[in-house]
Amino acid sequence: MLDDATESAPTARPSEARNRILDTANRLFYAQGVRAVGVDTLIAKSGVAKATFYKHFPSKDDLVLAYLDAVDKAWTGQLHAAAAAAGLDPADQLVGLFDALTSACERDGYRGCGFINTAAESTPGSPAHVRTIAHKHAVRAWITDVATRAGAPDPAALARSLTLLLDGGLAAGALDADPLTALAARDTARGIVDAALSA
Amino acid sequence: MLDDATESAPTARPSEARNRILDTANRLFYAQGVRAVGVDTLIAKSGVAKATFYKHFPSKDDLVLAYLDAVDKAWTGQLHAAAAAAGLDPADQLVGLFDALTSACERDGYRGCGFINTAAESTPGSPAHVRTIAHKHAVRAWITDVATRAGAPDPAALARSLTLLLDGGLAAGALDADPLTALAARDTARGIVDAALSA
DNA sequence: CACCAAGCAGACAGGTTTGTCTATCTCGGT
DNA sequence: ACCGAGATAGACAAACCTGTCTGCTTGGTG
C-alpha cells in the first residue's frame, strides 16, 4: 500500500518514449495551439502507445505544463544568449535582448509566444495561466536586474517598458511575420534605454 | 430555383434572436476563448432554438467572424474616444490612446485583446487570422494618421512603436490585471512621443 | 380567413476527445 | 531461466461537438 517504490508512479524521469512525446508536443502545441492538438494525434506522431503516454503524463494538462516548461527554458535561454552577445555593457545588453526577438520572428513557423498563446486558450486561474504569469514575472525580474546594473534611476520602470515592448513584438510578430516589426521594437528599445540612462 | 428573395438565405439583418446570439457570443467567446465554447452552450445561454442559430450563422466560424467584427467596432471606438478626450493636440491624442488601455484593463473580466486571443486559437491563413491582421493594420494606419498630423518626422515608425506598446499592454494586462502595467505603457508612450516630436 | 416567415423544442447522425483497460512483446539483470 | 520494467497495439466507454432534420407555435399581412 505504502510502498511507493514499486508502484507505477507518474514517471518524471527521462526516457526515450517520454522525450519523443515531449518533442512532438513542443512542435504541435506551438504550431496549432494546445486545444487543437488531440491526445491521439500526439500519440500517433510520436510513435508511442497510449498506455505509455498516460504513464508519463497522467493527463493532457500535465503535458501542457511540461510543454510550457520547455518554452520557458528555450525563450529564457535565447534572451540570456542575446544579452550576452551584446557585450559587457548592461545598457547594450538591454537593447541586445531584442535580437532574440528578431531571430525568433525570422524562424520559419514562428507563431508568437507559446505562453501567451496558451494563456489565451486557458481560463484565468488554471495551472497554465498561473505558470504563464510566473514566466513573465521571472523575465521581467531578470531584466530589472540588468537595468539595475546599467545604473538606471528607476530599473523597475525601465524593465516594465521593455517587457511591454517585448510582449508587443511577440504578439505582433505572430500575426504578420514582418521583420520590420522586430527591428522597430529594437529601435524603440534603444531610444527608451538611452532616455532612461541619460536622465 | 433562382428566386433568391423567398428562400432562406442566411439572415444578416438584425433580429431579436440574432442579437441575443451575438450578445452571448461576445461574452462567452471573450471570456473563455472561441474553441472552449460549444454551439450547444451558445444556444442554451441565448435561449434560442438550434435551427434559429444555424439560420443566422450557417456555421460556428461565421459567428466567430461576427464576434470579431464586434470586437473591432468596440475597440476602435474606445481608441477614438480616448484620443478625442485627450484634446485637440494630436501629440496628446497619441498619448491619450493609452487611456483606452487603462480603462480596458480595469474592466472586470478583462482578458486581453479578443483578436489576439482568437488568432492564438486559429491557424495562420484562416479567416479569423486574416481578419485579425486586417484589424491590427487598420489600427496602425489610423495611428499613423494621427502621428502625421502631430508633425512626426517619421509617422510610420512612431505608429509602429506605439502599436507595439499597445499590443504589449493588451497581452500583459490579460495575465496579471496589474493597473501599473497600463500606466507604465502610457508613461512610456509619453516619452516616445516627446522624443519623436522633438527630433 | 389563409398564409408564411420567424422562432421554439428536441431527436438524431457522425465524428472527435480524453482516459481506462487488457493482452502481448522485449529487453537487462540476477 | 526467470522476473519485472517499460514499451506496443488497440478495444472500449462516456462525453462532447458540429450540423441536419422534423414538428409545433405564433404573430403579422394580404
Question: Mind explaining what this structure looks like?
Answer:
2 copies of one chain form a homodimer. With 199 residues, chain A is mostly helical. In chain A, 73% of the residues lie in helices and 0% in strands. The first copy, chain A, contains 9 helices and no strands. In chain A, helix 1 (16-32) packs across helix 4 (60-85) and helix 4 (60-85) crosses helix 5. The model of chain A is unreliable at 1-9 (pLDDT under 50). At the A-B interface, helix 6, helix 7, helix 8 and helix 9 of A face helix 6, helix 7, helix 8 and helix 9 of B. The first copy, chain A, binds a DNA duplex (30 and 30 nucleotides) through residues 6, 8, 11, 15-17, 38-40, 47-52, 54-55, 58-60.
Give short descriptive properties of this protein.
disordered N terminus, 9 helices, homodimer, 0% strand
